[in-house]
């Protein structure tokens, strides 16, 4: 898989939080175009806050964020999305009262321009026979595919995923891993994925970051799959 030398995302000294609580404290991270980065950490360590800070839902209190050379530190979420940052939140947020097709078209409604519908369905042939089915009648795995497809309707360059395997049957988890690998190679996407499922993460990531107390305490890079034992050690040390 091609990974560029150029940094697509640069986070420099990011501090953010809620009300009187500081969650991320001077976090610094650079992600190259085409990289697939896993974010690990125990509950409450700031993984979702990092995702929400990257999309602009949680403002930076200090530090600087840059995406594809543009300073996005003070840009609102819709502008960051237009620049190419896509987000699939924890819990997926499928609109259950709408059909698969309607959910997909919502992903496009946020963007003006050429239709992504046919291109997206070509990447997700599993959804073709489900197009008229309401979101409420999808399995967890189908919902995750729909959430990914809906996000891709906005043509992101960077895909942020928060716990994509949560609540998904173990037998389907490998399908999600395969889909992410496929999307990355077909579209050259950069992917940052928050995960608790180590097996899943080790099967897809070429770099793993461990968060603790709002800081990065391990940044394990490998040309291929990261070392599961090493990651586990960092998680244990940080428990
Ligand atoms: N909207 C909010 N208002 C106030 N505090 C919040 C809010 N969201 C999260 N927090 C707090 O911020 C801290 C970090 O939460 P965050 O959700 O980023 O952690 P996480 O690593 O993603 O955890 P989990 O694995 O449980 O999702 C926690 O102490 C949490 O209680």
From TrEMBL:
<dbReference type="GO" id="GO:0015807">
    <property type="term" value="P:L-amino acid transport"/>
</dbReference>
<dbReference type="InterPro" id="IPR052156">
    <property type="entry name" value="BCAA_Transport_ATP-bd_LivF"/>
</dbReference>
<keyword id="KW-0067">ATP-binding</keyword>
<dbReference type="InterPro" id="IPR017871">
    <property type="entry name" value="ABC_transporter-like_CS"/>
</dbReference>
<dbReference type="GO" id="GO:0015658">
    <property type="term" value="F:branched-chain amino acid transmembrane transporter activity"/>
</dbReference>
<dbReference type="InterPro" id="IPR027417">
    <property type="entry name" value="P-loop_NTPase"/>
</dbReference>
<keyword id="KW-0813">Transport</keyword>
<keyword id="KW-0547">Nucleotide-binding</keyword>
<keyword id="KW-0029">Amino-acid transport</keyword>
<dbReference type="GO" id="GO:0016887">
    <property type="term" value="F:ATP hydrolysis activity"/>
</dbReference>
<comment type="similarity">
    <text>Belongs to the ABC transporter superfamily.</text>
</comment>
<protein>
    <submittedName>
        <fullName>Amino acid/amide ABC transporter ATP-binding protein 2, HAAT family</fullName>
    </submittedName>
</protein>
<feature type="domain" description="ABC transporter">
    <location>
        <begin position="9"/>
        <end position="238"/>
    </location>
</feature>
<dbReference type="InterPro" id="IPR003439">
    <property type="entry name" value="ABC_transporter-like_ATP-bd"/>
</dbReference>
<dbReference type="Pfam" id="PF00005">
    <property type="entry name" value="ABC_tran"/>
</dbReference>
<dbReference type="GO" id="GO:0005524">
    <property type="term" value="F:ATP binding"/>
</dbReference>
<dbReference type="InterPro" id="IPR003593">
    <property type="entry name" value="AAA+_ATPase"/>
</dbReference>
